[in-house]
Automatic annotation (TrEMBL):
Its main location: membrane. The keyword rRNA processing does not apply. GO terms for biological process: enterobacterial common antigen biosynthetic process. One of its GO terms (molecular function) is O-acetyltransferase activity. PANTHER family: O-ACETYLTRANSFERASE WECH. It comes from the Bacteria. This is Acyltransferase. Belongs to the acyltransferase 3 family. Keywords: Acyltransferase, Cell membrane, Membrane, Transferase, Transmembrane, Transmembrane helix. InterPro entries: Acyl_transf_3_dom.
């Protein structure tokens, strides 16, 4: 299964950039009092929802790579290697978070207390899923051992807990609401409550699927057609829900899950422009950390110098998307070829 993972990581990061190019444009349109309707609205909603595959795929791939690093029976993953991975992820996260906070202070005057900035870093503002990724990497030596012996039980437990959190964090997602009692909030993990509700299952799924690929893949192979049908159905339901046509709040949590069971059946050579996606995959963490600044700066410049472009939201979003891909990737490539290449890991992971 590992041969296609680097390219899938690249695809996931491209979808993240597309998602945020549209998301931030909608925010700018709202700030400037402009509406959005018609076929361009429909196209943007469709492209925007594709981004919901992205973080689950990246977490799944991360879990799969941990399984590869922990190969053996019992799995062995040293705490020293985990510490090195955490440092490689943490420093770029801190650097780009602080740059983002400086940018939004300059652009719109957003300022926080020292404790406010600490809270932002802990919960992952604006890099939402990174604290969850750091948490899973931090406990990976333990979770890898549990996954080898009790992988299916682990997935069932995390999946049920995530469903509970979904209905607690997003009331009514399961068709009912929990009683209005503060006692249930005691079951929400500090800091990570919302991110576990959104994505808790995906890192363990990649870990367990990779550790048990030989026994799981033949079983899942018999379910490929239903899984493809379910993925398409849940995706379309979420698009219609986002467009306000129907009410289906749970759909957004379902189609990434059904899709990821199909990963072993995606052949590397069947992925279009696979080498380019693999190249993006190798720089996906740095791209994730840098693209938001490029997107927001692009819309800031449009708003100040060519606000009429907001009347063409689809082409504008696609141009900003391309810029938000190209500028960070060119910057990272330039740094690796410069005398400053020794600082690359410190800056981009």
């Amino acid at each position: 299964m590992n041969r296609q993972l680097a390219a899938l990581s690249g695809v996931a990061m491209v979808l993240v950039v597309l998602h945020h190019a549209i998301d931030l444009q909608l925010s700018w349109l709202q700030q400037t009092g402009q509406g959005l309707a018609g076929w361009q609205f429909g196209a943007l909603v469709l492209l925007h929802r594709l981004g919901k595959f992205a973080v689950p795929t990246f977490l799944f791939v991360s879990g799969a790579f941990v399984a590869y690093a922990a190969r053996g029976n019992p799995p062995h993953l040293s705490w020293h290697s985990v510490g090195m991975t955490l440092r490689r992820l943490l420093w770029p996260y801190l650097i780009w978070s602080l740059l983002f906070y400086a940018w939004i202070f300059w652009r719109r005057g957003d300022a926080y207390s020292v404790l406010g900035y600490v809270k932002n870093l802990l919960v992952g503002y604006p890099y939402h899923f990174i604290p969850l990724l750091l948490f899973y990497y931090g406990i990976s030596p333990l979770i890898a051992r549990v996954a080898r012996r009790h992988g299916y039980l682990l997935l069932a437990a995390i999946g049920l807990y995530q469903l509970f959190l979904i209905n607690l964090e997003f009331p009514g997602s399961l068709g009912f609401t929990f009683p209005a009692s503060g006692a249930l909030r005691l079951l929400v993990p500090p800091i990570l409550g919302e991110t576990v509700a959104l994505w808790g299952i995906y890192f363990p799924l990649g870990l367990v699927y990779s550790l048990k690929a030989r026994e799981l893949t033949p079983r899942v192979a018999r379910l490929r057609a239903p899984l493809v049908a379910a993925t398409v159905l849940f995706f379309l339901l979420d698009v219609l829900h986002t467009a306000g046509v129907i009410h289906a709040p749970l759909a957004v949590h379902l189609y990434p899950f059904t899709f990821l069971w199909l990963v072993p059946f995606i052949q590397r050579n069947a992925i279009p422009r696979v080498r380019q996606f693999e190249a993006v995959g190798k720089r996906s963490y740095g791209l994730y950390l840098t693209h938001l600044l490029v997107i927001d700066a692009a819309y800031f410049l449009v708003n100040h110098f060519a606000p009429g472009l907001f009347a063409h939201p689809l082409p504008l979003a696609l141009v900003v998307f391309v810029l938000a891909l190209a500028i960070p990737l060119l910057g990272m490539a330039g740094m690796t070829a410069s005398p400053a290449r020794g600082a690359y890991r410190f800056a981009f992971g």
